[in-house]
Write a structure and sequence with these properties.
With 387 residues, this protein is α+β, with helices and mostly antiparallel strands. Helices cover 33% and strands 26% of the residues. Helix 1 (12-22) runs parallel beside helix 8 and helix 6 crosses helix 7 (182-195).
Length: 387
């Protein structure tokens, strides 16, 4: 058996790539190691309740009339109609630096502009110049890495403002410790601060099911529970793959969406990222009784918090770094149907290597997870009040 195109990885990027390719040739095979599609944006069931993983919000919101907006262009490229989806916009989010200040932002960029003008009047001219630069900057031109921290240092007079602007963008869009490439910064700034965030009115399962049905309608096929062990190649051209079961499959082309380092491992080649400091994250999900009184904010969708004036974005020495994080209230989107529980999710930087060391000891692994979940809950209650 031989397939023209094999897509490795059934996350949202792999599924979107497979749909795009299947529009032009139905002979596309998507393989996913897990038994369920979604990758980092998936779901699981606990006591009959569906819990989402990864998906806080989708960036780059746009109204249907904005035909050239990334969201609407993406849907057209996938041959999906906007009216197939029901989107709910964020209410309001904020960057909170404990003891230093806060910046609110929403899908109307004017809110952030007014917040900066009010709280950082000495930097408003520099911020206006930054907006003008970004409006004329093409982030898709290939360039060497340019430090955004250095770039902002020369344009914004208040270093606290630079740190606060960077916090959400690094958490959601940077694979570099302590920094983000200027081109990626431009993309993420537009995505979060200028176009804003939203989510589907349904669950991530509903979204994945819709995408999978559409892919199959176009003629594509899927194999889940199908991990790739090796990519067969001669150094210049791929010839196929070997699955973890030992089965071999020939193909003309391969598109891997599982990550730079992981793909190079399948090729049997050293990755250029091997020596870099790899970032990791841990997420906690808390379900609260809707009938119980709570001090949780009803007008905040996501809070990006940090302790101190400088945001530290690197692999922590401890298993989890609780000095910064992302607090998401998945129910706080406009027109989102109420669910049985109030959900709170927290994300923190984590040291993957330390977790990997104890992963073989189930008891120690579970105990450490519970300990950090309790610590995270205590930290969250300091910020938003008791649950």
């Amino acid at each position: 058996m031989k397939v023209p195109l094999l897509v490795i990885g059934g996350g949202l990027s792999g599924l979107a790539a497979a749909i795009r390719a299947a529009r032009f040739t139905p002979d596309v095979l998507l393989v996913e190691k897990h038994f369920r599609l979604g990758g980092l944006n998936s779901y699981f069931f606990r006591n009959g309740t569906l819990l989402e993983t990864g998906l806080h919000a989708i960036t780059n919101y746009a109204e249907p009339a904005k035909k050239k907006a990334p969201l609407n262009r993406l849907l057209r490229q996938l041959k999906l109609h906007r009216d197939q989806f029901s989107f709910c916009q964020q209410r309001q989010s904020e960057v909170l630096f404990l003891g230093s200040g806060r910046l609110r932002f929403a899908n109307d960029p004017q809110l952030l502009n007014s917040e900066i003008e009010r709280q950082f009047p000495g930097s408003i001219d520099g911020f206006t110049e930054l907006l003008d630069f970004l409006n004329h900057f093409d982030p898709f031109v290939v360039r060497p890495f340019v430090s955004t921290r250095d770039f902002l240092k020369n344009r914004l007079h208040d270093p606290l403002l630079a740190e606060m602007l960077l916090c959400p963008l690094l958490y959601y869009g940077s694979s570099h410790a302590e920094d983000i490439d200027l081109s990626q910064f431009a993309i993420m700034f537009r995505a979060i601060y200028q176009e804003g965030m939203f989510r589907p009115s349904g669950t991530i399962k509903d979204l994945l099911d819709l995408l999978l049905d559409h892919y199959r309608f176009l003629g594509g096929t899927v194999r889940t529970g199908c991990g790739v062990k090796k990519i067969i190649h001669d150094g210049k051209r791929v010839a196929g793959v070997v699955f973890e079961t030992g089965e071999e499959l020939a193909c003309d082309y391969i598109l891997s969406t599982i990550g730079h380092r992981e793909t190079y491992q399948l090729l049997g080649k050293p990755s250029s990222e091997e020596s870099s400091e790899r970032l990791g994250f841990v997420e906690n999900i808390y379900l609260l009784n809707r009938q119980k009184p709570s001090s949780l904010p009803v007008d905040r969708t996501i809070i990006f918090y940090n302790s101190g004036d400088r945001f530290t974005y690197r692999r922590p020495e401890l298993p989890v770094d609780l000095t910064s994080g992302v607090i998401c209230f998945p129910g706080n989107f406009h027109q989102l149907p109420a669910r049985e529980h109030i959900e709170v999710r927290s994300t923190h930087l984590a040291n993957y290597l330390l977790w990997e060391k104890i992963s073989g000891d189930a008891h120690a692994y579970k105990a450490e997870k519970c300990r950090y979940a309790a610590c995270s809950l205590a930290e969250l209650e300091k910020i938003v009040g008791p649950f």
